[in-house]
Amino acid sequence: MKAENLFNVRGQTVVVTGAASGIGLAYASVMAANGAHVELIDRDAQALAQALEELGATGAQLHGKIADVTQPESLRQAFDHAIARHGRIDTVFANAGISAGPGFLNGAGERNPAGEVENLSVELWDRVIATNTRSIFLTLQTVVPHFKQHGGGRIIATSSISASKTETLVSSIYATSKAAVGYMVRQYAHELARYNILVNAIAPGPVITNIGGGRLKSPQARAPFEQAAPLHSICTVEDLQGAALFLASPASRLITGQQIIVDGGTTLGPAD
Ligand SMILES: NC(=O)c1ccc[n+]([C@@H]2O[C@H](COP(=O)([O-])OP(=O)(O)OC[C@H]3O[C@@H](n4cnc5c(N)ncnc54)[C@H](O)[C@@H]3O)[C@@H](O)[C@H]2O)c1
Questions:
Q1: Using a 6 Å cutoff on CB, does residue 240 contact ligand 1?
Q2: Could you give the number of structural domains in the chain?
Q3: What is the CATH number of the domain that holds 256?
């Protein structure tokens, strides 16, 4: 089969949460560039307007809706909006998420007291779990009835390599929030298979985005992560577009309950 058929997303309606920046914006961009109608959802009105302007320049069919993924009613309204506009939704990237700060070590390998369990606030725990984990549950609750009614659909979460390994430089709360996403992908893929609903995730290693105040934009901050990756490189958002296209397209028709790791080999362990 030709690549243009294997990876065809033309005419799909795709919803992306956390689409105004970073990885979500890259997902929206690759979907639109390949002929999908894309509904961008984000809580940051200014960033959303800017993202739409940027992507709109390509002439793609794009719309935006301000919504907070931690609020069920806000999410419902945004999805209703997309359905009213396009008649249906085919694929959802449940991507919005936040950092929980550094882990129990700093980049030099010294203890970082602020990241140690006894010093983490319950407020941070609640905020991160609500944004990174509960939001996936709420997104499923919002879109699954629609998918069941329309004979299927795809949900692609953004988890993290933190879902499957312990962390030192990244907060334990963040790792916990993503481990739960990894579990949900398997659990709900199993439950929803009979309705032709595929549930998968993209699990990136560190990616240069605006997350955590954009700290990975600093060469000094990303050095330990580059060192830990056997390929000695961390991801740009473009490095995630191939996996996104694959999981939204006919090429992955029988793939469900899986996480695609994109991490320069980090989860294999240091190589030199
Ligand atoms: N950057 C990384 O190193 C990395 C690695 C692995 C996984 N991830 C995951 O990728 C996803 C995207 O992160 P990113 O790195 O692109 O970050 P980013 O900060 O560049 O973009 C995240 C977007 O999500 C939006 N958002 C945050 N909370 C929201 C909410 N409650 N409702 C609606 N929108 C909300 C923000 O406004 C922002 O536009 C997150 O789930 C993150 O955990 C990131």
A1: no
A2: 1
A3: 3.40.50.720
